[in-house]
């Protein structure tokens, strides 16, 4: 009796050890490559998560460098514009900035709007919109355009963060469903027959979470950075409006002519 119990325990331990060797990612990939047809859904889930992860990493890198460049050059561009005594020199400096620099583009739109309004004095344009309203409209459009450029990639990060766990869960549910079918067909419900397929299926959920978590964290981080940048856009736009509408910033004495 004792010998039979010992043999049963040894067999159970052997089955458990065998089951553990079937719960890894390596074993799952081996099974998927050996019989791709049986793991068609798993392949679709794995490829989808890989694409999502690649897109997420791409936009995280792009937005990181974009925000670093913007924050590094924003104060320099703004201060140089206001410190330049000659308006033409200030505008020329803004024209020399890279195309990706947003503050210079906002200033140039305001300057072009003011110049366009001045050139058409006496026309219907001037009669329908005064200088302040014309510059204000140009600034609103410029701020909206540059704000939308800052948001590039955030929709993808939000989509990956919200859908990747469900994609992984789909792989898990389908894997467990397949495991139950195999168990019912073979009539074996031992630990080595159950743990391997179920463990492999749960790997899909883990992959979905590993894909979603960085995307969610990055999305929240970039939204916070963009909110600070939007405030700078608004402050700079208000100062530009005052300057091009009245000839001086708020708090400054207008220059004598």
Automatic annotation (TrEMBL):
Parts of the chain that traverse the membrane: 38-62, 154-181, 201-222
InterPro entries membership: ExbB/TolQ_transport (IPR050790), MotA_ExbB_proton_chnl (IPR002898)
Keywords: Cell inner membrane, Cell membrane, Membrane, Protein transport, Transmembrane, Transmembrane helix, Transport
Membrane-protein topology: Multi-pass membrane protein
Stretches assigned to the MotA/TolQ/ExbB proton channel domain: 125-233
Compartments, as annotated in UniProt: Cell inner membrane; Membrane
Domain of life of the organism encoding this protein: Bacteria
Main subcellular localisation: membrane
Oligomeric and partner information: The accessory proteins ExbB and ExbD seem to form a complex with TonB.
Protein family (similarity comment): Belongs to the exbB/tolQ family.
Cited function: Involved in the TonB-dependent energy-dependent transport of various receptor-bound substrates. Protects ExbD from proteolytic degradation and functionally stabilizes TonB.
Name of protein: Biopolymer transport protein ExbB
Organism for this UniProt entry: Cognatiluteimonas sedimenti
